[in-house]
């Protein structure tokens, strides 16, 4: 049977719905049953999403697994799903992280369990939907749908300032989203005015021959920018992030950092760049400056944090700065690096939040000063933490290095000093991470309570293993990942930066060779 | 005898009037404890009338051009019947709780609906005004229906005094139209006016008519009565008032302004665009500061009138049919919103302040889930109907290049999120008060109404196609 | 001067005279009785202008219905209290302004735009009972029927809201 012909994306997206239905009808007293079902459903979703790999052809042009049904014909909205390499990786990351996050909440969440898992599964629907949909309205629907369960996850199971954090998160992102919606509508009407067809089909918007006047592009880009930049979050819009990340329950933080932030960058890559190429080029300086500020600022603030979790949260801002920097270098390598770095960030920051969650579960405090010398009490834990910390820093051999390196190379091609400044962010990153590690892991055990802390149990190790495995895989052999990304990335760059391929053909060739070699070399 | 055939086309109104009068006649013969029967009886009337809508023949001009039965009016009639049906379902629990279950209530409710149905069918100033008054007078009585309750008395009185004034203003505007043309039929007025060109008095007529209708839809600056009346009137009546008469007035706006006064399009578009801006902004900002949930919903319904007016200001296909779609979903959401208070009613005025909702999600999970759905829809977040409706409305504004209005609209939705989710926050994030043991026992009818509302909100959001195309067809005559 | 215009003048002057009598009587009942005759003479004017229907309405509704309510009201209140009231100058001023505005308007129309006061052709035909009847039961049948519902609602509503028993 041909996998491509199955409505696989719909199945993956809506599979958690089955879990929701089952859980809905289970009495809330049967807590274990609810947990088991939620875990099975998320695990199955991940397994089903792996089957995408069987049918996915990295050499194919355009979208794969396409499903297209008319949804609201009155205004030309379609149920249009399809993926390319970029979405493929993000979908796999989403299903994996959701499964791990669900697994990690087995013991942490001790009240209102039924609702928790329902929201978790709802969240998964929204997130996968965002990465699969190619119709702008469909995309927007999933984009918004996902806000609601996240709001509840933060608000019900969050920390002390959960009310504030939840509503701030919701308001901020909704503010961005509604402007995004206006941008989509403006695009829609312009497309109608030119072609006479009412459609929200994103592929038609980026089709050859359909060009938007630069002035209109500018405004639409601005609207999109608000929507996506708040989600990423880029520098001046980042203030919701520390609150939401710190107050959210562990699983919520993992998903926030691991996936939600990627939705913003994914939005840029999928829609802003290819649909609005002229405006994207025009915005490059602005975004690069904001990204560099985010890299440095995020790192500096992270260094000052007393709270372990907010340190990780601020490190996200810094890392996402790298992602947007690489993206707006508008070179194939920068873009590839940017996507790889998104995956990396999902893996390493997700893991770091899980790591914080583990000690928080045992000690109910996140203050760094409360810990110290944990490496002696929890050796396995210390090892896991070390790997993930190094991956976050970008140590060669681990995943973070590949992403950051590609981004810097991509940026360097455009303006060397952008890369130079950004590189200083890496050093700062190493500084705050190593310092954190030193403070909590080494030294004497200063607190009595810490002595009784148990090391990781089997379940906890189970959810770290895939992440560690991935960290090494991407670090040592990134070729399969890069290969999947190659076609879609080239297509986007051709569209957004056509001069690039004309002006420097040999450099491209050279760099691609370089990149191939780099992929093959185990560091 | 041509008009006997015409009677067929208004059979749904006739059925409903018949049932209303029958209720009045038979109710003295029914013992107090069997009054429940009246509820069933009115539901049968409503269902019969609803079925008749689909059977009765459409006809462009009835009874010497005083009425028309076109798709546009049928759409609104169906909407009114649905609204009345839901209100009847939620009414019983309320009035039984208040120990004031009267047959007259259903009589007034059904006749208000008859008035509304005639309103949207009218293509003549006289029949429009008379049916408008039928609706208005029944509404005054309904608002003051709970005689023992001081707030209801106040609401009835306020609504009456201001409402009569607005009716007078409406009539004043109509008299200008008549004075300028010597005609009462819409078609003839239009022909007469389009030969004459614009006139100072025509603008006065437009302004006065718009003013009176702004009053009924509670648009700024004629919104002052809304919070008090909505808070004071019996809750099911509030639900009804905030939905059905508003929808009818929007229908009148569309018909009158697009069929009779298109020559003033520039003037009234500007007027409505600004009124819409102020209405939604005022409604939302005032709702932010409310301590009573009921008043918050009252202000939010002001804000929604503002959103719907965007559709009218923009006009065009997206605008008008967006309005129709919006009004449909608005009917469900707002009746749902006010039915919350019937569910919550325990002791006097309990369930109207935010703290009363603390931890509701743990005590009444199903009901809370539906409230969240309603709140999402009111905010305009997918996958609810409110989202699709807002997409329509905002696209209309963008299509007409009213960018400022669209931006104001979306920013207002963001503001509205804050206060709607103050309620969500109370229900889900706060712990229930330990000291009061509250058991909620919704009646079957209330549960049915809430379930219908929840399903409708989802259906309109996820499979909007059949309804959207219905709205599109119904708005078709205004699209050129 | 034809007989027709003679009657017009007669009723006109009579209604002005009766109007003056209404407002100058000390006894309120007397005023009311004069008012009835005043209304009747205005009805005569309408009749002469071929507005038979309005003339009939004038007699039935005003002279018949509304006057009864007036008389009831007069009988129910204590007239001594009213007698004792001093007339305040503000009220006099307002009365004077309204009076002069209205009479000024009529004078203006009489002197400058006489044609505006003349009944138009269709205006006459619309005033007959037959014309009004066919309007009500043909052209405006539906509004007429809706008015019946409206009156029913108003009546039941008034009874319900004013009934003592809750």
Low-confidence stretches of chain B: none
Overall pLDDT of chain C, averaged? 82
Task: List the domain count of chain C as a whole number.
Answer: 2
The CATH superfamily of the largest domain in chain C is NADH-ubiquinone/plastoquinone oxidoreductase chain 6, subunit NuoJ
Largest sheet of chain C: none
Q: How is the CATH topology of the largest domain in chain C named?
A: Four Helix Bundle (Hemerythrin (Met), subunit A)
Structure report:
The complex is a heterotrimer of chains A (523), B (480) and C (166). Chain A has 523 residues and is mostly helical. Chain A folds into two domains: 1-275, no CATH class; 284-523, no CATH class. Chain A has helices at 8-24, 31-55, 85-108, 113-132, 136-145, 147-157, 162-195, 202-205, 214-231, 240-247, 250-275, 277-304, 308-328, 332-363, 374-377, 379-393, 399-414, 416-441, 458-476, 479-496, 498-503, 505-520, and strands spanning 64-72, 77-83. In chain A, strands 1-2 form a two-stranded antiparallel ribbon. Chain A is globular and about 70 Å long. Chain B is mainly alpha-helical and 480 residues long. Chain B has a domain at 267-480. Helix content of chain B is 76%, strand content 1%. Chain B contains 21 helices and two strands. In chain B, helix 4 (71-97) runs antiparallel to helix 12. Chain C has helices at residues 3-24, 28-48, 52-76, 79-84, 89-112, 114-117, 121-126, 129-139, 141-162. In chain C, helix 1 runs antiparallel to helix 2 (28-48), helix 2 (28-48) packs antiparallel against helix 3 and helix 8 (129-139) packs across helix 9. The longest helix of chain C is centred in the middle third of the chain and has 25 residues, at 52-76. Chains in contact: A-B, B-C. Chains A and B meet through strand 1, helix 5, helix 6 and helix 7 of A and helix 17, helix 18, helix 19 and helix 21 of B.
Compose a concise summary of this entry.
With 480 residues, chain B is mostly helical. Chain B contains 21 helices and 2 strands.
């Amino acid at each position: 049977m041909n996998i491509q012909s199955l409505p696989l994306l719909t199945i993956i997206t809506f599979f958690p719905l089955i879990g929701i239905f089952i859980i809905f009808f289970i009495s809330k007293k049967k807590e274990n049953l609810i947990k088991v079902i939620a875990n099975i459903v998320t695990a199955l979703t991940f397994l089903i999403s792996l089957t995408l790999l069987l049918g996915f052809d990295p050499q194919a042009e355009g979208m794969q697994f396409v499903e297209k049904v008319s949804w609201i014909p009155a205004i030309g909205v379609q149920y249009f799903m399809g993926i390319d390499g970029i979405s493929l990786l993000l979908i796999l990351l989403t299903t994996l992280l959701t499964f791990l996050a669900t697994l990690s909440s087995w013991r942490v969440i001790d009240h209102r369990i039924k609702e928790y898992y329902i929201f978790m599964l709802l969240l998964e629907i929204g997130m996968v939907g965002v990465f699969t949909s190619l119709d702008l309205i469909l995309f927007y629907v999933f984009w918004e749908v996902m806000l609601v369960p996240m709001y509840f996850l933060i608000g019900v199971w969050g920390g002390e300032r959960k009310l504030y954090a939840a509503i701030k998160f919701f308001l901020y992102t909704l503010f961005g989203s509604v402007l995004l919606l206006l941008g989509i509508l403006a695009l829609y009407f312009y497309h109608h005015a030119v072609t006479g067809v009412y459609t929200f089909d994103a592929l038609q918007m980026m089709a050859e021959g359909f060009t938007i006047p630069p002035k209109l592009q500018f405004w639409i880009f601005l609207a999109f920018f608000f929507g996506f930049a708040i989600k990423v979050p880029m520098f001046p819009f980042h203030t919701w992030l520390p609150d939401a990340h710190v107050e959210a329950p562990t699983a919520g933080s993992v998903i926030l950092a691991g996936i939600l932030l990627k939705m913003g960058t994914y939005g840029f890559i999928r829609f802003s760049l290819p649909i609005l190429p002229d405006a994207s080029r025009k915005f490059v300086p602005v975004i690069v400056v904001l990204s560099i500020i985010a890299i440095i600022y995020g790192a500096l603030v992270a260094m000052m944090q007393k709270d372990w979790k907010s340190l990780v949260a601020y490190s996200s801002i810094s890392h996402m700065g790298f992602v947007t920097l690489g993206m707006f270098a508008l070179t194939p390598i920068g873009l590839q690096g940017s996507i790889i770095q998104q995956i990396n960030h999902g893996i390493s920051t997700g893991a770091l939040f899980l790591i914080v969650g583990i000690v928080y579960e045992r000690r109910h405090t996140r203050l760094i000063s409360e810990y110290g010398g944990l490496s002696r009490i929890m050796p396995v834990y210390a090892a896991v933490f070390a790997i993930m910390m190094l991956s976050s820093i970008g140590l060669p051999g681990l995943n973070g290095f590949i992403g950051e390196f590609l981004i810097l190379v991509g940026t360097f091609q455009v303006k060397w000093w952008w890369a130079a400044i950004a590189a200083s962010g890496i050093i700062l990153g190493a500084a705050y991470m190593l310092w954190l590690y030193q403070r909590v892991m080494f030294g004497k055990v200063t607190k009595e309570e810490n002595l009784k802390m148990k090391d990781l149990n089997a379940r906890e190790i189970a959810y770290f293993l895939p992440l560690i495995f991935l960290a090494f895989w991407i670090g040592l052999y990134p070729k399969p990942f890069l290969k999947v990304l190659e076609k879609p990335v080239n297509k986007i760059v051709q569209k957004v930066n056509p001069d690039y391929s004309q002006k420097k053909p040999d450099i491209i060739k050279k760099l691609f060779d370089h990149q191939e070699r780099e992929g093959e070399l185990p560091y | 005898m041509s008009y006997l055939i015409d009677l067929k086309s208004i059979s749904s109104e006739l059925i409903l009037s018949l049932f209303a009068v029958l209720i009045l006649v038979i109710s003295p013969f029914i013992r107090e404890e069997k009054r429940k029967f009246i509820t069933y009886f009115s539901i049968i009337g409503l269902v019969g009338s609803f079925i008749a809508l689909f059977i009765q023949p459409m006809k462009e001009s009835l009874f010497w051009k005083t009425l028309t039965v076109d798709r546009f009016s049928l759409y609104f009639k169906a909407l009114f019947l649905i609204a009345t049906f839901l209100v009847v379902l939620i009414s019983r629990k309320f009035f039984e709780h208040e120990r004031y279950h009267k047959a007259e209530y259903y009589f007034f409710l059904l006749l208000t609906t008859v008035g509304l149905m005639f309103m949207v069918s009218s293509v003549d100033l006289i029949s429009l005004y008379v049916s408008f008054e039928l609706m208005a007078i029944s509404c005054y009585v309904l608002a003051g229906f709970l005689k023992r309750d001081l707030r209801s008395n106040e609401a009835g009185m306020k609504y009456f005094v201001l409402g009569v004034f607005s009716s007078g203003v409406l009539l004043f505007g109509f008299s200008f139209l008549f004075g300028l043309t010597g005609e009462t039929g819409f078609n003839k007025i239009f022909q007469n006016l389009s030969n004459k060109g614009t006139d100072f008095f025509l603008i006065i007529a437009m302004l006065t008519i718009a003013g009176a209708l702004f009053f009924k839809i509670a648009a700024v600056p004629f919104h002052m009565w809304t919070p008090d009346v909505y808070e004071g009137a019996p809750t099911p009546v509030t639900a009804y008032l905030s939905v059905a008469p508003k929808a009818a007035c929007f229908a009148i706006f569309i018909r009158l302004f697009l069929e009779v006064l298109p020559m003033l399009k520039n003037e009234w578009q500007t007027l409505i665009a600004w009124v819409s801006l102020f209405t939604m902004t005022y409604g939302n900002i005032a709702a932010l500061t409310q301590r009573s949930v009921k008043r918050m919903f009252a202000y939010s319904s002001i804000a929604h009138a503002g959103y719907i007016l965007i559709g009218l200001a923009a006009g065009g296909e997206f605008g008008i049919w967006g309005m129709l779609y919006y009004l449909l979903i608005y009917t469900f959401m707002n009746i749902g919103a006010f039915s919350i208070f019937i569910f919550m009613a325990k002791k006097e005025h309990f369930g109207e302040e935010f703290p009363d909702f603390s931890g509701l999600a743990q005590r009444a999970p199903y009901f809370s889930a539906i409230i969240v759905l309603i709140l999402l829809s009111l905010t305009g977040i997918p996958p609810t109907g409110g989202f699709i409706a807002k997409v329509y409305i905002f696209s209309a504004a963008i299509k007409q290049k009213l960018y400022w209005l669209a931006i104001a609209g979306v920013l207002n939705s963001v503001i509205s999120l804050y206060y709607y989710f103050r309620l969500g926050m109370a229900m889900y994030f706060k712990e229930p008060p330990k000291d009061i043991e509250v058991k909620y026992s919704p009646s079957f009818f209330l549960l049915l109404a809430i379930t219908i509302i929840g399903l409708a909100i989802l259906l309109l959001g996820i499979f909007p196609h059949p309804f959207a195309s219905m709205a599109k067809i119904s708005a078709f005559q205004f699209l050129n | 001067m034809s007989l027709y215009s003679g009657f017009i003048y007669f009723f006109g002057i009579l209604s002005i005279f009766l109007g003056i009598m209404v407002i100058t009587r000390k006894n309120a009942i007397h005023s009311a009785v004069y008012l009835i005759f005043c209304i009747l003479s205005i009805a005569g004017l309408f009749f002469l202008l071929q507005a038979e229907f309005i003339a009939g309405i004038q007699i039935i509704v005003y002279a018949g219905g509304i006057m009864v309510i007036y008389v009831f009201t007069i009988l129910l209140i204590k007239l001594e209290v009213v007698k004792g009231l001093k007339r305040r100058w503000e009220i006099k001023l307002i009365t004077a302004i309204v009076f002069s505005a209205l009479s000024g308007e009529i004078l203006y129309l009489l002197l400058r735009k006489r044609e505006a006061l003349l009944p138009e052709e269709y205006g006459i035909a619309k005033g007959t009972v037959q014309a009004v009847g066919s309007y009500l039961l043909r052209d405006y049948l539906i509004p007429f029927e809706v008015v019946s519902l409206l009156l029913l609602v108003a009546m039941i509503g008034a009874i319900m809201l004013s009934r003592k028993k809750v």
